[in-house]
Amino acid sequence: MSETRVPMSDNRPSDPAIRFVDRLAGSDTFKTLFQEGMALVEETASYLDTDGREESKDLSRAGSLAYATESMRLTTRLMQLASWLLLQRAVNEGEMTAEQAVQEKNKVRIDSVRSAEGQRGWEELPDRLKTLIEGSLNLQRRIVHLDKALSGDAESVEDSDNPIAKQLDALSSAFGAKS
After folding, report:
1. Residue ranges of the domains in the chain?
2. Over the stretch 77-135, which tens digit does the pLDDT of each residue have?
3. Inter-axis angle of helices 127-150 and 28-49, nearest 10
4. Which residues contact 90 (CB under 8 A, 6 or more apart)?
5. What is the pLDDT of residues 39-64, one digit of tens each?
6. Mean pLDDT in the chain?
7. How far apart are CA 177 and CA 175, in angstroms?
8. CA nearest 158: which of 134, 135, 179?
9. Read out DSSP for the chain?
């Protein structure tokens, strides 16, 4: 029994690669991320305008300074993240092209605003503020990861977000082996 083989090149589609991240950006996963991000923005604004004001009145001078600094950083971080989410949603819904979004995204800094955990006065901050800061940093990590994947910077994503790879690299360096 003889088989007839058809050359692989004759059966290949013209564009066989389907990028997972392109599908992810328009998926329910993105919609959930968007909803979580916007809910965190609303929750933070509500807290800072109500309970946060009251809680900050009881802080020492160092605590008050830390509160003011961290609430400003938190607000700035969330505004940048919300801007990124809104840009991505506009692309997903066809309101702007990917090229337009890239131009606008250059104005958004999603990975530049950090927290000053461990700084003087940090320990005095209200637990609710610390929880909001932690939530915003988690959202930031997720968005930065997705942004790098969408922009095709997969190597950077792997390097920055993979603690196991970092440990393997450290072991390889220490023992002269290549992973």
Report:
1. 21-175
2. 999 999 999 998 888 888 888 788 888 887 888 877 677 777 889 999 999 999 999 99
3. 150
4. 96, 101
5. 999 999 999 999 999 999 999 999 99
6. 79
7. 6
8. 179
9. --PPPPPHHHH--SS----HHHHHHTSHHHHHHHHHHHHHHHHHHHHHHTHHHHHHTTS-HHHHHHHHHHHHHHHHHHHHHHHHHHHHHHHHTTSS-HHHHHHHHTT--TTS----TTSTTGGGS-HHHHHHHHHHHHHHHHHHHHHHHHTT-HHHHHHHH-HHHHHHHHHHHHHT---
Contact between 90 and 35 under an 8 Å Cβ cutoff? The reply is: no
| Dihedral (Cα; 127, 134, 28, 157), 10-degree rounding | -170
For residue 63, which of 116, 130, 132, 120 has the smallest C-alpha distance? 120
The pair of three-digit structure tokens given for residue 4, joined into one six-digit string: 């007839």
Phi-psi region of 94 (alpha: psi -120 to 50; beta: other; left: phi over 0): left
* Domain 21-175 in CATH 3.10.129.10: no
Question: Taking the complete model, does pTM exceed 0.90, yes or no?
Answer: no
